[in-house]
Amino acid sequence: MAPGETPASALARELVEELGIRLETDSIRYLYTVVGPAYSQPGEVEPVCFAGSWAGEPQACAEISAIAWLTLGEAEKFAPAVQQLCTEHLHHG
């Protein structure tokens, strides 16, 4: 996050920069924060999770080389903190 930037505004900026989609500002709502293991390095990360509506078609931009929709059945492909998020907050049924 940039200095003075809120997590929600950082999310909106990053989604434009990295996926080319624009969040509908009024639809953004905080869900939860997860503390979990970092991917391929020591330490932990704290993903802040939101829900919201967007406009546009997601596409790989900036440092993103490829995108794909994954199901919970493919959780082994998720970063460790995202796997933890799924275990703690998403229904697997």
Description:
The chain has 93 residues and is an alpha+beta fold. The protein has 2 helices and 6 strands. The protein has a two-stranded antiparallel sheet with strand order 1-6. Strands 2-5 form a two-stranded antiparallel sheet. Strands 3-4 form a two-stranded antiparallel sheet. A hairpin with a 6-residue loop joins strand 3 (36-37) and strand 4 (44-45). The protein is globular, with a radius of gyration of 14 Å. The model has no long low-confidence stretch (mean pLDDT 90).
Radius of gyration: 14 Å
| Structural class by sheet pairing and helices | alpha+beta
Low-confidence stretches: none
Helix content: 10-25%
Main pleated sheet: 2 strands, antiparallel
Mean pLDDT value? 90
Strand order in space, largest sheet: 1-6
Compressed to H and E, one letter per element, the order equals HEEEEEEH
User: Please, how many helices?
Assistant: 2
The total of beta strands comes to 6
How far is the first residue's CA from the last residue's CA? 35 Å
Strand content: 15-25%
Shape call: globular
Brief description of this entry?
The protein is α+β, with helices and mostly antiparallel strands and 93 residues long. The chain contains two helices and six strands, in the order H-E-E-E-E-E-E-H.
